[in-house]
Amino acid sequence: MKRYDLIIVGxxxxxxxxxxxxxxxxxxxxxxxxxxxxxxxxxxxxxxFFGSKEHHAKIRGYRIGEELLEEAEKAGVRVVLNxxxxxxxxxxxxxxxxxxxxxxxxxDAIIIATGASENMVTFDGWxxxxxxxxxxxxxxMNLHGVKPGEKxxxxxxxxxxxxxxxxxxxCGCDVVALVDAAPRIGGYGVHAAKVARxxxxxxxxxxxxxxxxxxxxxxxxxxxxxxxxxxxxxxxxHFDVDTICLAVGLSPMSQLLKMAGCAMEDxxxxxxxxxxxxxxxxTSLPGVFVAGDVSGxxxxxxxxxxxxxxxxxxxxxxxxxxxxxxxxxxxxxMHALDGLRQGMFAPKNKGKVLTETExxxxxxxxxxxxxxxxxxxxxxxxxxxxxxxxxxxxxxSQNIPCNPCQDACPKKCIKIGEKITSLPAVDETATCxxxxxxxxxxxxxxIFLVDETYEPGYATVTLPYEFLxxxxxxxxxxxxxxSGKACCExxxxxxxxxxxxxxxxxxxxxxxxEMAMKARFYRADEVAK
Length: 529
Prior knowledge:
By secondary structure, the chain is an alpha/beta fold.
């Protein structure tokens, strides 16, 4: 029986982060993962992360995955793929199925970083081909280059539903609607806004009645629900679709921990059955640690920090570092983790209905119901100003832990302050040079450059643009408003791409000056007739 200092189950963001920390300190580490490729969800995540520099802010998930794999290789971590761990026992023995073999391994410490699995909901026709999970859609698109469908309805308005809806459109799919039984959008407002301005309608307090079709999905019927989530007769709506995508939450994959006899609890705020563990990530079984979504559903940024914490804790348990060093490292990591657990979407606020931001600004009910700020609402935020010449307009309306725009501006036009969740504001004493770095760095695509003095009667609006094919200077199309409705004809002035923008192109359009604060998206196929 092969023996290691440390066995890690799961080669996702938390597992790899844990392996790196332990291997750097001299531990003999092996990571088992059931998939053919390491990295977990990171290589599906083509969007930019939120947070600060220490949280990999404004870096796309797959790039973070590449960095982790490179770091793990340098540290000497052994990663075994296509290896399904089917048993975990109290004496730190695991059973792994590798191909046709079943192999036993033992370790002095174990970290379980198995992540989470997608939830499903049942409805008439839910087993038809064409009903898929949002994670499956991401796998098809972003790992294998396969288009999931032509016309898609998305169920679920959390961050996964919002992000995957946008990626489906980037893939060339027509997202006909975004539906959620809840009365308000569950994910970040900036994610909802970038979907809404493309023209996707939101149906809150609605859910699926049935999927239609004989041998595959050909349509779907939704209906409004009341406060008890019962269908309201007469509110049915039909859509012709070939794909129904479900983004209805995640559940921790904690079966191995339960099998080993770890103390567990049913905690809805953390996603379901999770192990009881201390601040070091250690379960009720000494030497068995957890990291990432298996101990509670959070973002990948949090999972990586938790992985590092577990790797350090395991290193101390194994004798590769002393407790004082562990505690110092742990304190720094807790500070970084605490930064991600602040703001309106903090765990402590889960289930609460907040009515105003930390700055005392009323939270937009239109944003929560329809996915976009109204023209009147947008004016109340500190990032929205009217200045002579080119200047940033930051339509960030929720307290989210994120500050790359502040770091990106070379002229310090943008200020957030020490509190990472504060709404971005414009420094009136600084002068914008129109470089566009703030637009490209914004993980929520919520920053625009506006110049209402471009030429008599016309203004320019510089938008973040991540669709192909790219428009060309001189092209004419239609500008869409925040609600996704056509608001005016628009002419492309320029399209800028640069390595520093990391695939976020800066599309500058010319619009009538009165539309400068309304035009927020460009569509080439809706030229005014």
